[in-house]
Amino acid sequence: MPPGAHLVYFPSSSNEFELSPDGYLADEAPPKPFEQRVWAGGLMEFNPANPLRVGDLTSQTKRVENVTIKERAGADPLVLVKLALRMNNSRGACATEYRDLAYMKPIDLGRKIVKHNRQPDFVHKMTPSEILLFRYSALSWNSHRIHYDSVYACQVEHHPGLLVHGPLTCTLLLQFLHANMPEKMTLRSFDYRAISPMYCQQELHLNGRWLQTTQSEQDGSTADGTRRCELWATNNEGGIAMKGVATLVPLA
């Protein structure tokens, strides 16, 4: 299975009455007043020797690694929650995901326009639709209302439209990398951060750039064949919505 597919294969077993008013999992939320939440980023680590495979019986365990309060000058504090999700099959560890969630008092989330001064090596343009967001919500069992309930997203959380899921953006970047993957390479890790929201029916760009180090060969690989690729998604205003670095290794 391609890297990132685990996001849709271990759905929550929570019943509707166990959800928060915003439709998301209540057991991942701190108490009031920190009721507004965002997916802030994370780290995905994959085991190239034991990937997730169709037909394998695989389990996922989830635990809260830590909860911290981040004080901010001139603003209310944030509650930062780090989750660790570990996937194992009969042969051992397949993948680990460290997921960073941020919780805050309800505010009007403004979009930061942070430009990237790098030129990509490959680009793909697309416009996320309501159907795409609905299908991803259904596949990932994500009932957070900001992704499918436009009245809630606009009138309650004061967004200009439906939000593109953080994990959907991450998945699109991983699929984009997969389409441009060098032969006989596989993904070992993807470390990423969400910078600014993206909205439905607004064009986005997926960008990739191969990184080189002082020890790199001409193709950007190191002595052991490892390659690193910078990936980022930009919104319709040209600002970075998500960015990260993927590490690739040769297939065994």
TrEMBL record:
A single GO molecular function term of this UniProt record: (3R)-hydroxyacyl-[acyl-carrier-protein] dehydratase activity
GO cellular component annotations of the record: mitochondrion
InterPro entries (UniProt xref): HotDog_dom_sf, Mitochondrial_HTD2
Domain of life assignment: Eukaryota
Full protein name: Thioesterase/thiol ester dehydrase-isomerase
Organism: Coemansia erecta
